Amino acid sequence: MSERNDILGEMNDRSREVFRRVVEGYLATGDPVGSRTLTRDFSEKISAATIRNVMQDLEFLGLLDSPHVSAGRIPSQLGLRMFVDGLLEVRDLDRDDQQKIDETLGKNAGDVGSMLDRVGSALSGVTQGASLVLAPKHEAPIKHIEFVSLAQDRALVVLVMADGHVENRLFTPPPGQTPSSMREAANFLNALIEGRTLSELQTVIRDEISRRRQEIDQLSRALIDSGLAVWAEDGSSQERLIVRGRSNLLGDAQGEEELERIRTLFDDLERKRDIAEFLELADQGDGVRIFIGSENKLFSLSGSSLVVSPYMNADRKIVGAVGVIGPKRLNYGRIVPIVDYTAQLVGKLISDRT
């Protein structure tokens, strides 16, 4: 984001105004914006030729695109991202929009599922876009868990609960993980589930990690005391045992067995750490975000944007999210406060029920 802010900061006032007006014009109409359109209501007297030169410079920077042979320009995905991050003016929530949301959610009757259905309807109706509603996390015992790799930096965890409820949660996996390592993690967890909830499963894994550390300490102590091994202190959280005088152990079958056992325990400890990190990431919620075009892995093929905001329970813990899906030329300044207000209202209603 800092690189985008640098580009914005290096623009002069004229370039910034041309850029802002092209983006705002495109968001309002969906059409390319031409130089002649800009000259009519520009803040200073300036020729269409000068504006065309500025637009060409912005296109060279990757902020504008030319969709047709015409002189009109539209913002690129990078341009939209920079506009949203640095120039977007978020309006106050419109009173009519607030009233429509309040009327729909004010009927605080029925179960949580019914209420969230009304939330979806309200968001769709007010924004004229598709709504996205993630229900509160289900803390029932888990029957089965599966990790699915969607992209290098995105994965899906599928939780099948004992009561038949199914949850899909997106998360960013630890660096270096592969579909194969995710399958191994899922197989390990499924062998441990036995009707446990996700938080209980995390406790079990932490206990397993603690036991592995104790086993390693016990087996390594004799080698360290004899001077044949030493703990390496490299500033990282990963323990390393450096064996000295390896030749002294070659004739000692028991020593070789202990080393192999320690090596196996280290491998096991590392796998369990990865699994613990998987579970922790799967149990976290994303913060408020705007995804534009291909930034949004789920809707990238359709070129859609997603404005999503989490909602919290009475303990200030993220338990779900609401959002709006629409074209890249969403009226972000209007949609952001609508989604934010709806998320806060849902959080309050959820808290009142607990």
UniProtKB/TrEMBL annotation:
<dbReference type="Pfam" id="PF01628">
    <property type="entry name" value="HrcA"/>
</dbReference>
<keyword id="KW-0805">Transcription regulation</keyword>
<dbReference type="GO" id="GO:0045892">
    <property type="term" value="P:negative regulation of DNA-templated transcription"/>
</dbReference>
<dbReference type="InterPro" id="IPR029016">
    <property type="entry name" value="GAF-like_dom_sf"/>
</dbReference>
<dbReference type="InterPro" id="IPR036388">
    <property type="entry name" value="WH-like_DNA-bd_sf"/>
</dbReference>
<keyword id="KW-0678">Repressor</keyword>
<dbReference type="GO" id="GO:0003677">
    <property type="term" value="F:DNA binding"/>
</dbReference>
<dbReference type="InterPro" id="IPR021153">
    <property type="entry name" value="HrcA_C"/>
</dbReference>
<protein>
    <recommendedName>
        <fullName>Heat-inducible transcription repressor HrcA</fullName>
    </recommendedName>
</protein>
<dbReference type="InterPro" id="IPR002571">
    <property type="entry name" value="HrcA"/>
</dbReference>
<dbReference type="InterPro" id="IPR036390">
    <property type="entry name" value="WH_DNA-bd_sf"/>
</dbReference>
<keyword id="KW-0804">Transcription</keyword>
<dbReference type="InterPro" id="IPR023120">
    <property type="entry name" value="WHTH_transcript_rep_HrcA_IDD"/>
</dbReference>
<comment type="function">
    <text>Negative regulator of class I heat shock genes (grpE-dnaK-dnaJ and groELS operons). Prevents heat-shock induction of these operons.</text>
</comment>
<keyword id="KW-0346">Stress response</keyword>
<feature type="domain" description="Heat-inducible transcription repressor HrcA C-terminal">
    <location>
        <begin position="115"/>
        <end position="336"/>
    </location>
</feature>
<comment type="similarity">
    <text>Belongs to the HrcA family.</text>
</comment>
